[in-house]
Amino acid sequence: MNQHAAVKTFSHVKPGDTEYTGGGLRDFFLYRDLGIATATGGQVIAHLVKANPDCPPEDGTGWHRHDCEFQIVIMMKGWARFMYEDKPTLVSAGDVVHQRPGLVHYLYDYSPDMEYLEIVSPADFKTVDMPAATDKVPPVTPWK
To answer: What CATH number belongs to 29-129?
Structure first.
């Protein structure tokens, strides 16, 4: 049963309504707000995330976890390689990943055309740096 306040706001964001911008959680990604955080009173955020063409992968996100109740990633284009705890995982276009709350992970490699939809609750979730789950992280794929 949803214990959150009732949401009564309608939202319809079209492609030209919002632009990709920097200044999000990671400098090497660009983010496009989809208006869901405002529409849900902060209960959920949904944004598109894509590779910044000026920033090929070097160090990735580093090991971290998110303080959230729910998080999914839907890879729309390209691919990204994650470490989920000690397991390397390729997430390709069309894949859907549910990252359980508190999962320690590391996005360490991605294609130049990578773009994913991320949906997280709550909208103001926190990211916490974590110690490495393993020292066996594969190398990045250089962009050509």
So the answer is: 2.60.120.10
